[in-house]
């Protein structure tokens, strides 16, 4: 049970923090960023020490789970140091990461040793040419070797995340589930979210609902709704005869705001209350003006929760109101 001291005006207990440690990435997924994406200047990005300071404050306030994401978190220099510090915080139950998998072959063992307990690996296709089209990088084999590396280690859970774009990779959902089951991994299918305007990419045209995916998968596997809930936009299904689960992350078709238990720290140190709104608090400004004042940081975090909106508003028919990209806020 969580004893979080962070409770928002709608009575929701916030015990889950997602931290984007960089907006940079070694891939250029078409739905996430342009090939010539511009990145924040280094001085605007939180230092690893500042990230650890925010994590420490959150854990002291009752946060039990932290997910490290990006951009690509594993391309950030010295990230293992920060992971070790965060994993060792007394009271933290879970340190998890979301990664594109490119560094896992090299870093899998170190991640385990640092105290990471779960890894989500993003994998949208098993076809080499399509992988290169989607990520603009020819790195499928490297990612697959990375997955083999972490599968051989005793992580608590490994999961695949696949963004499904209609007419692009929806023909692979069955193959992706087969791959996940063979590797004893769970798998989540993600609906694309309208975050940021990307050239040559019409989001409404490629939208495919989670319900449609589930109906299709239901023809091949016997799926039943699972009790498991993460407080987020994921719904999980048990697969008859298997110990793995299939999840659907669907911000459009299912509203999950009433159980939202999370906030996000952006790479530039903004505490973001909701993925679909701009409400935020600049924690970097507080830390840089008062570097030693831990109590002030904690109080700022507590006070900022009044900004958490009741729900988000995504609409594919309209121009995105959210001009941030997922890479800057952490997916
Ligand atoms: N680079 C890492 C990775 O790809 O896993 C971590 C960051 S990435 C932003 C986190 C997740 O967000 C990935 O699974 C990615 O596919 C997903 N993502 C990125 N842009 C998205 C969008 N517009 N809609 C839905 N998911 C998106
Ligand atoms: Fe990089 Fe992840 Fe965005 Fe792909 S989804 S460009 S891997 S941050």
From TrEMBL:
<dbReference type="Pfam" id="PF04055">
    <property type="entry name" value="Radical_SAM"/>
</dbReference>
<feature type="binding site">
    <location>
        <position position="260"/>
    </location>
    <ligand>
        <name>[4Fe-4S] cluster 2</name>
    </ligand>
</feature>
<dbReference type="GO" id="GO:0051539">
    <property type="term" value="F:4 iron, 4 sulfur cluster binding"/>
</dbReference>
<keyword id="KW-0949">S-adenosyl-L-methionine</keyword>
<feature type="binding site">
    <location>
        <position position="25"/>
    </location>
    <ligand>
        <name>[4Fe-4S] cluster 1</name>
    </ligand>
</feature>
<keyword id="KW-0547">Nucleotide-binding</keyword>
<dbReference type="InterPro" id="IPR040064">
    <property type="entry name" value="MoaA-like"/>
</dbReference>
<dbReference type="GO" id="GO:0061798">
    <property type="term" value="F:GTP 3',8'-cyclase activity"/>
</dbReference>
<feature type="binding site">
    <location>
        <position position="67"/>
    </location>
    <ligand>
        <name>GTP</name>
    </ligand>
</feature>
<keyword id="KW-0456">Lyase</keyword>
<comment type="pathway">
    <text>Cofactor biosynthesis; molybdopterin biosynthesis.</text>
</comment>
<dbReference type="InterPro" id="IPR007197">
    <property type="entry name" value="rSAM"/>
</dbReference>
<dbReference type="InterPro" id="IPR058240">
    <property type="entry name" value="rSAM_sf"/>
</dbReference>
<keyword id="KW-0342">GTP-binding</keyword>
<comment type="subunit">
    <text>Monomer and homodimer.</text>
</comment>
<feature type="domain" description="Radical SAM core">
    <location>
        <begin position="9"/>
        <end position="228"/>
    </location>
</feature>
<feature type="binding site">
    <location>
        <position position="18"/>
    </location>
    <ligand>
        <name>GTP</name>
    </ligand>
</feature>
<feature type="binding site">
    <location>
        <position position="29"/>
    </location>
    <ligand>
        <name>[4Fe-4S] cluster 1</name>
    </ligand>
</feature>
<dbReference type="GO" id="GO:0006777">
    <property type="term" value="P:Mo-molybdopterin cofactor biosynthetic process"/>
</dbReference>
<keyword id="KW-0501">Molybdenum cofactor biosynthesis</keyword>
<dbReference type="InterPro" id="IPR010505">
    <property type="entry name" value="MoaA_twitch"/>
</dbReference>
<keyword id="KW-0408">Iron</keyword>
<feature type="binding site">
    <location>
        <begin position="262"/>
        <end position="264"/>
    </location>
    <ligand>
        <name>GTP</name>
    </ligand>
</feature>
<dbReference type="GO" id="GO:0005525">
    <property type="term" value="F:GTP binding"/>
</dbReference>
<dbReference type="InterPro" id="IPR050105">
    <property type="entry name" value="MoCo_biosynth_MoaA/MoaC"/>
</dbReference>
<dbReference type="GO" id="GO:1904047">
    <property type="term" value="F:S-adenosyl-L-methionine binding"/>
</dbReference>
<feature type="binding site">
    <location>
        <position position="193"/>
    </location>
    <ligand>
        <name>S-adenosyl-L-methionine</name>
    </ligand>
</feature>
<feature type="binding site">
    <location>
        <position position="31"/>
    </location>
    <ligand>
        <name>S-adenosyl-L-methionine</name>
    </ligand>
</feature>
<dbReference type="InterPro" id="IPR000385">
    <property type="entry name" value="MoaA_NifB_PqqE_Fe-S-bd_CS"/>
</dbReference>
<feature type="binding site">
    <location>
        <position position="71"/>
    </location>
    <ligand>
        <name>S-adenosyl-L-methionine</name>
    </ligand>
</feature>
<feature type="binding site">
    <location>
        <position position="257"/>
    </location>
    <ligand>
        <name>[4Fe-4S] cluster 2</name>
    </ligand>
</feature>
<dbReference type="InterPro" id="IPR013785">
    <property type="entry name" value="Aldolase_TIM"/>
</dbReference>
<protein>
    <recommendedName>
        <fullName>GTP 3',8-cyclase</fullName>
        <ecNumber>4.1.99.22</ecNumber>
    </recommendedName>
</protein>
<feature type="binding site">
    <location>
        <position position="274"/>
    </location>
    <ligand>
        <name>[4Fe-4S] cluster 2</name>
    </ligand>
</feature>
<keyword id="KW-0479">Metal-binding</keyword>
<dbReference type="InterPro" id="IPR006638">
    <property type="entry name" value="Elp3/MiaA/NifB-like_rSAM"/>
</dbReference>
<keyword id="KW-0004">4Fe-4S</keyword>
<feature type="binding site">
    <location>
        <position position="32"/>
    </location>
    <ligand>
        <name>[4Fe-4S] cluster 1</name>
    </ligand>
</feature>
<dbReference type="GO" id="GO:0046872">
    <property type="term" value="F:metal ion binding"/>
</dbReference>
<feature type="binding site">
    <location>
        <position position="98"/>
    </location>
    <ligand>
        <name>GTP</name>
    </ligand>
</feature>
<comment type="similarity">
    <text>Belongs to the radical SAM superfamily. MoaA family.</text>
</comment>
<feature type="binding site">
    <location>
        <position position="122"/>
    </location>
    <ligand>
        <name>S-adenosyl-L-methionine</name>
    </ligand>
</feature>
């Amino acid at each position: 049970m969580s004893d979080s001291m962070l409770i928002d005006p709608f009575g929701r207990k916030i015990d889950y923090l997602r931290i984007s440690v960089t907006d940079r990435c070694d891939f250029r997924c078409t739905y996430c960023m342009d090939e010539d994406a511009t990145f924040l200047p280094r001085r605007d990005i939180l230092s690893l020490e500042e990230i650890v300071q925010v994590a420490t404050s959150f854990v002291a306030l009752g946060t039990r789970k932290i997910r490290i994401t990006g951009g690509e978190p594993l391309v950030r220099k010295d990230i293992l140091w920060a992971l070790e510090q965060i994993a060792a915080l007394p009271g933290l139950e879970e340190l998890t990461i979301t990664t594109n998998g490119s560094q896992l072959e090299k870093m899998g063992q170190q991640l385990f040793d640092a105290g990471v307990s779960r890894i989500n690996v993003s994998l949208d296709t098993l076809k080499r040419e399509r992988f290169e089209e989607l990520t603009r990088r020819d790195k499928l084999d490297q990612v697959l070797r990375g997955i083999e590396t972490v599968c051989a280690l005793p992580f608590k859970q490994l999961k695949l995340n696949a963004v499904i774009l209609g007419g692009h990779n929806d023909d692979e959902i069955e193959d992706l589930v087969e791959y996940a089951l063979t590797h004893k991994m769970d798998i989540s299918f993600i609906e694309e979210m309208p975050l940021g305007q990307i050239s040559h990419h019409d989001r409404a045209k490629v939208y495919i609902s989670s319900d449609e995916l589930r109906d299709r998968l239901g023809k091949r596997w016997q799926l039943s709704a699972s009790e498991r809930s993460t407080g987020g936009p994921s719904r999980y299904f048990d697969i008859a005869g298997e110990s793995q689960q299939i999840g659907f992350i669907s911000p459009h078709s299912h509203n999950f705001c009433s159980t939202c238990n999370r906030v996000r720290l952006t790479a530039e140190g903004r505490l973001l209350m909701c993925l679909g709104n701009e409400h935020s608090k600049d924690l970097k400004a507080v830390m840089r003006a008062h570097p030693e004042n831990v109590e002030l940081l904690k109080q700022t975090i507590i006070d900022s929760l009044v900004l958490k909106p009741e729900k988000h508003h995504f609409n594919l028919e309209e121009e995105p109101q959210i001009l941030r990209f997922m890479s800057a806020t952490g997916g």
